[in-house]
Amino acid sequence: MLEQVDWDDPLNRLRVGVVLTFSLYERRDEKYLGYNIDELSDGTPVFLIRPAWLNKGYDFKVCVEGWDDSANPAPSHPDVYSDLYWKREHDDADSFEAICKAVLGIYEGDSPDEVLEEYGDEFNFTVGRVPEALLKPLPWLFIEQDIRYWNYSGRDKTIELVKKLYDGVPLSELDLKLQDLDEIHDTPLAIPNQ
Q1: 143, 149 in Cβ contact below 8 A?
Q2: Nearest Cα to 54, choosing from 145, 153, 182, 119?
Q3: 116, pLDDT greater than 90
Q4: Which entry of 64, 113, 165, 172 is 20 to 30 Å from 42 by CA?
Q5: Of 17, 37, 64, which one is at a domain's C-terminal end?
Q6: Cβ distance 51 to 186 under 8 Å?
Q7: Cα–Cα distance measured from residue 50 to residue 30, given in angstroms and rounded to the nearest whole number
Q8: How many CB atoms sit inside 10 A of residue 14's CB?
Q9: For residue 133, which of 191, 69, 89 has the smallest C-alpha distance?
Q10: Which of 20, 38, 64 is at the close of a domain?
Q11: Structurally, how many domains does the chain consist of?
Q12: 95 and 182 in one domain?
């Protein structure tokens, strides 16, 4: 069965690797497990918690320390969309285009470090969270969707709203519960707090 996997595809390696790691290394009697998966340039950890609150199958929660003031600071899809929306509305078009291209690159399998290297110099934002805090958890949000919805419908649903934001679709036409910008700016990872 494993020889059917396209191991050259970085997305397949990550998806299968996550499932195998959970299957091989977790004991059935463990209540919660954490996995350090990345860190921001200042050392802020990006980590996974298992099981997530749904506690179904291979469900996990992606967290970024300082995302909010909760014990499990997890970026939600609406949080990411809201941050992108506020950047679109308050900052220059070139910066917004660059971060959307970075998100699309991660969707296609590029690493956050690769897109930060390629687009980071174009980021000139004054609102929202630091771009690195948005981009570092994204592959794992996509992978979580891939594992939950094996036909890629989750990954595709996630990226569709980003594409609509990129295309300039007005807020009134988006299915988005917007996170308040002041709420974002109350977090340690907000640009005004850096």
Answers
A1: no
A2: 145
A3: yes
A4: 165
A5: 64
A6: no
A7: 10
A8: 18
A9: 191
A10: 64
A11: 2
A12: yes
